[in-house]
Amino acid sequence: MLIIVIIGKSQSLTPFVVASSGGFYSNSAGMLSTTIGEMTMVNTFTSSTNILTQGFQQVIDMSVNVSEHQRHQFEIAVYPNPVATELSLSIQCDQRQPCKVTFIDIIGNLAKAASYIASPGLSVYKMDVSNLAAGVYLLKVDAGESSKAIRFIKN
């Protein structure tokens, strides 16, 4: 007669919950606790009157939406390019807004600055650039939370 005895070891897992939301509900019939999260194991316990299942519970699918702040749009153009004495800046925008205009030379120094109030639609501003040295410049327009830049050449 051959008797085989197998002795084994079992692994025990401790539940770990990562929860972002949940709730607790009760009335005269009973209590219910919910957790939106994930457990590392699922167990079901039964008795003559109750069934309890532990594990992943998701009683409601929820989402969070964050609306993006609507920025006011604008477009810029400069002409003539290259320029000798007078540069025209056109600003096309969707609402009245203050605009800060800066001229930055090729090495990053501020060469000139101006401020305007742009009207809805197309606005054209003429700027004297005769006192700027010949070279490449960056014209930057800041309007609210938006900014645009365009390169031009001064002869």
Question: Can you describe what's shown?
Answer:
The protein is mainly β and 155 residues long. The protein has strands at 18-27, 30-38, 43-46, 51-54, 74-79, 86-93, 97-105, 110-118, 121-128, 135-143, 146-154. A 4-stranded antiparallel β-sheet has the order 8-7-10-11, with no helix packed on it. The chain has a 3-stranded antiparallel β-sheet with strand order 5-6-9, with no helix packed on it. A hairpin with a 4-residue loop joins strand 7 and strand 8. It is rod-shaped. The protein starts with 17 loop residues before the first strand and ends with a strand.
Rg over CA atoms, rounded to whole Å, is: 35 Å
Count of discrete alpha- or pi-helical segments spanning 4 or more residues: 0
Mean pLDDT: 78
Count of domains:
2
The CATH architecture name of the largest domain reads Sandwich
Low-confidence stretches: none
Essential attributes:
single chain, mainly beta, 155 residues, 11 strands, rod-shaped, 3-stranded antiparallel β-sheet
Layout of strands and helices, then pairs:
Elements: E1 18-27, E2 30-38, E3 43-46, E4 51-54, E5 74-79, E6 86-93, E7 97-105, E8 110-118, E9 121-128, E10 135-143, E11 146-154
Antiparallel strand pairs: 1-2, 3-4, 5-6, 6-9, 7-8, 7-10, 10-11
Question: Would you summarize the structure shown here?
Answer:
By secondary structure, this protein is mainly β. Helices cover 0% and strands 55% of the residues.
